[in-house]
Amino acid sequence: MRYIGNTRDNQREMLGVIGAGSLEDLLVRIPAKVRLARPLALPPAMAETDLVRHLRALAATNTDADHAVCFLGGGVYDHYTPVTIDHLISRGEFFTAYTPYQPEASQGTLRTIYEYQTMIAELTGMDVANASIYDGGSSLAEAALMAASVTGRAEIVLAAGVSPLHRRVVATYCEGPAVRLRDAAARDGVLDLDAARAAVGAKTAALVVQSPNFYGCLEDLAAAAEIAHAAGALLVVAADPVNLGVLQAPGRLGADIVVGEGQGLGVPLSYGGPNLGVFAAKQEFVRRMPGRLAGATVDLDGQRGFVLTLQTREQHIRREKATSNICTNVALCALMATIYLSLLGKQGLVRVGELASAKAHYAAERLGAVPGVSLAFGAPFFKEFTLRLPKAPERIVARLAKQKILAGVPLKAFDRRLADGLLVAVTEKRTKDEIDAYAEALARAVA
Amino acid sequence: MAMPRYDKLVFEIGAPGRVGYSLPASDVPVEDPRAGIPDSYLRREAPALPEVSEFDVVRHYSRLSQLNYGVDTHFYPLGSCTMKYNPKLNETMARLPGFARLHPLTPPASAQGALGLMHDLAQMLGEIAGMDAVSLQPAAGAQGELAGVLMIRAFHRANGEKRTKVLVPDSAHGTNPASTALAGYQVVQLKSLANGDVDLADLEAHLAPDVAAFMITQPNTLGLFEQRILEITDLCHARGVQVYMDGANLNAILGITRPGDLGFDVCHFNLHKTFTTPHGGGGPGAGPVGVKSHLEPFLPAPVVVRRGEAYALDWKRPKSIGKLQAFWGNFGMLVRAYTYIRTMGPDGLREVSENAVLNANYIMARLAKDYDVAAPGPCMHECVLSARKQKKLGVTAMDIAKRLLDLGFYAPSTYFPLIVEEALMIEPTETESKETLDAFCDAMIQIAREAEQSPAVIHEAPVTTSVRRLDQTRAAREPDLRWAPRR
Amino acid sequence: MANIPAELRYTKDHEWAKQEGGRIRVGITHFAQEQLGDVVFVELPKAGARATAKKAFGVVESVKAVSDLFAPLSGEVVEVNDALAKAPETVNGDPYGKGWMIVIAPSAPREWDGLLTASQYEEFLAQSGP
């Protein structure tokens, strides 16, 4: 077996040093009664060539974004991923290390976390960012719990445009601590400010708003901040960091905590995971934040170095009183994002946003002009929008998939009032030709 | 050999106007991509991100990587973390476009390969653990714990029972009490015996009608198999208490015994430990959770099911505890774990555990003269030593860890489990060969000699790393968590 | 020799209490700060908060440890040592002086009699000590 180092001779020698007669002698503490008396009922071992053939065949049955034109969004997107990222993160020193418990032998990881924290703080307009949470959904859930802990209140108001997938995660996390969820309705695709004002009150820990929201529409974050703060509640904003080269940093608009799905920052689609949970907050809340934080300090010689810090917040020290139970995070995805943001840089991220927005607006115009098809909402949008179709979106999507167009996400499963809704995302990678071909195929499909 | 020195952050290299990306010109007839978006929603100036070339980036991160120890480059005996070799084949398979480039909201009919892989992996993990059903959704061990405890809570509720407490031993990983508290339970800490075993009489005394669950690690965190496990699980079940197994130490028992056969109701798997997915500098991992059939209705939704020849995501799970992350699980990690299990087969997996146990016992035998052993063996896949002898000479477990870095090894886990004074928790894994173990043991013995004869060399350590010991106090007193230009 | 001023009273959780004309000044003992190591953060209540005997009123943290601060007596918190926010190291340097934490206006002054005297605390340390 190529992943095991010991030969039979090695084993004999080692057993001799231990003073044991056999491997079996080392297992004496395991009662006979609980021993598995048969081999595990698993398929037999496969040689590398056979296994590669098997997995290639399996992978080939999936319609992926390399073999079809992808207009799917809903939280993760087919954004441009410079090939350089995978080369760098694959270096074994990054890839096969763990949480930097020994900082002197982990300065590479610690320094990239510090860079990542700096970039995310800059994009979100927050003071501090952590080293990552699992994904956008769990990040939002952690933000809800943190808001409850900071304010001493036990109710969270969620704008109707918050991703229903993320809302379900928030509900799961809020079950134990008995934090209640309330919804604030939408009007024409965006948060109804009157409904928000009515829902947010003295018991509200936070108002949660996602922008652009699940349906693609841009929310009025400044107005939401005013409503939350007037009631002594926090404003939690869920934002896609890829958009923040063009869109205003939520921190500048009054957000107290900013979270988001950071997959677009160079993380593979990978059927939805691992993703990158972005988490940033104002300085005053830093000791209530979940997750790891890297900080700068000096070594014995006064030289700059980096460590994990404020660890007393975390489970390995504070145990049941920790700010979160998170231990393993998604450090490698955060490294992908750090390299992505370095490569794209000051100009590139703005360019990505401009291209995506331009192409999305072109696509909305083209698709919205197909007879029987219309834009569902009048609100401003960025790279994603909702269409209403004259035929069942599931069937249209299935039909276009056969023509290698992943047309969008049917919304019926998420919102029954949008049974005719199709969510379409357009990134900077889509071309005019692809969009035109999609419009033509859609016209044929709905005719 | 000293590490290279390199002190830059990416913000400290490059030049204004330099770029590292390649994007096409716009090919659509939209003149102003900001038209239609209210001014107040728009960023006024570009974010202060680096301005570097692609090669600047490549050299910067390559040099940063050289400041790390990883499994590929160094023996990494971090106890509880199972830092085994991460096969390169797993990586190539996870990067196949059909997996890596598959969007999670692709219609299930166009994602049959992915769903089938998940279905089969769940089945295989169920067989390995002796569990009836497995959810692959939890993103890491701690999230698996949360899912498991929430399922237990939902189970008791469905039975009309109000139980409010969960028992957790004082030797437990910190995530156990943290996840339990997050699930809304009061945590009651039980005192372990000196060898990390459960004190049965004490457990019995604590099994009150308001106890919902008992959560333990098997083998325990001292690396010993809990011998009276069947008595423990029987006792708990007799009182209506569910038993949760922290699966962090599963690498010790593959094909030898199974959590389900030990009487556990729930256990989680750490795919980044036992099943060779890389640790990535802190993650991502994957923390699937397995349950016995009575807990199956409460699994996180959706569940991957097979309907005839087709696979589907089943959302109609009225008793489900809900979702843990937006999508279906850390799929990229699932492909790697699947590849590993298919590579090893049943016999290979059993050899994994046998050799992991052999390696840990070998280290324990070789070091027993120079260090105190926390509990007499044989141990399972890891051994816990105490540096209490060395501490009397002024050399702590942390000092020993730092000295190991100079001698070319990453350090064991230190100061865990909490019930062992000056703990050094060593997990060699099966992928290390005898030569490496010998070199490590020689280094440990050398340090024990140095503690007696020349402790200064230990207190000075590390001196070969890119930085020397760091001022943790300053970092915590004056948190500096983001870069700002030097004024 | 342990540093345990004779005029103070003590708790088993290593807080000290000092009578100041009917009010009680509270801090942690020399032993406590030594056990914690370098103090990096102290979280204290706001003036006006209620303190309850044997219940936590705040938290003291070092790099690798957290400890609740327990009130020796019940009453209203009338003064808080805000200087510790900027200079937590004072708790290490001067635990019985500038490192004080809060002043309580006791609501049940007789709780004082239940606290350990210096000699009782010294004995307690000797018994539980390393």
- Overall residue-averaged pLDDT value of chain B: 97
Look at the structure and give the mean pLDDT of chain A: 97
Q: Roughly how many Å is the radius of gyration of chain A?
A: 25 Å
**What is the percentage of strand-forming residues of chain A?**
5-15%
What's the story with the biggest beta sheet of chain A? 7 strands, mixed
Helix content of chain A: 25-40%
CATH-scheme architecture of the largest domain in chain A: 3-Layer(aba) Sandwich
The geometry of chain B reads as globular
One letter per element, helices H and strands E, the order of chain B comes to HHHHEHEHEHEHEEEEEHEEHHEEHHH
Q: What would the CATH topology of the largest domain in chain A be?
A: Aspartate Aminotransferase, domain 2
End-to-end C-alpha gap of chain B = 36 Å
**Helix content estimate of chain B:** 25-40%
Identify the overall geometry of chain A. globular
Summarize the structure.
Chain B has helices at residues 54-65, 88-94, 97-100, 112-129, 141-158, 175-182, 200-206, 229-238, 331-367, 388-391, 397-406, 434-453, 455-460, 472-477, and strands at 133-135, 165-169, 186-190, 211-217, 242-246, 266-268, 289-291, 303-307, 310-314, 372-373, 383-386, 413-414, 423-426.
Topology:
The complex is a heterotrimer of chains A (447), B (487) and C (130).
Chain A: H1 8-18, H2 48-60, E1 69-70, H3 84-89, H4 92-95, H5 107-124, E2 128-129, H6 136-151, E3 155-159, H7 164-175, E4 180-184, E5 186-187, E6 190-191, H8 193-199, E7 204-210, H9 221-230, E8 234-238, E9 257-261, E10 277-281, E11 294-298, E12 304-308, H10 315-318, H11 331-368, E13 374-375, E14 384-388, H12 393-402, E15 405-406, E16 409-410, E17 421-425, H13 432-446
Parallel strand pairs in A: 1-15, 3-4, 3-7, 7-8, 8-9
Antiparallel strand pairs in A: 2-10, 5-6, 9-10, 11-12, 13-14, 14-17, 16-17
Helix pairs in contact in A: 5-11, 6-7, 11-13
Chain B: H1 54-65, H2 88-94, H3 97-100, H4 112-129, E1 133-135, H5 141-158, E2 165-169, H6 175-182, E3 186-190, H7 200-206, E4 211-217, H8 229-238, E5 242-246, E6 266-268, E7 289-291, E8 303-307, E9 310-314, H9 331-367, E10 372-373, E11 383-386, H10 388-391, H11 397-406, E12 413-414, E13 423-426, H12 434-453, H13 455-460, H14 472-477
Parallel strand pairs in B: 2-3, 2-4, 4-5, 5-6
Antiparallel strand pairs in B: 1-7, 6-7, 8-9, 10-11, 11-13, 12-13
Helix pairs in contact in B: 2-9, 4-9, 5-6, 9-12
Chain C: E1 9-10, E2 15-20, E3 23-28, H1 30-36, E4 39-43, E5 50-51, E6 56-62, E7 66-70, E8 75-80, H2 83-86, H3 90-93, E9 102-106, H4 118-128
Antiparallel strand pairs in C: 1-2, 2-3, 3-9, 4-6, 5-8, 6-7, 8-9
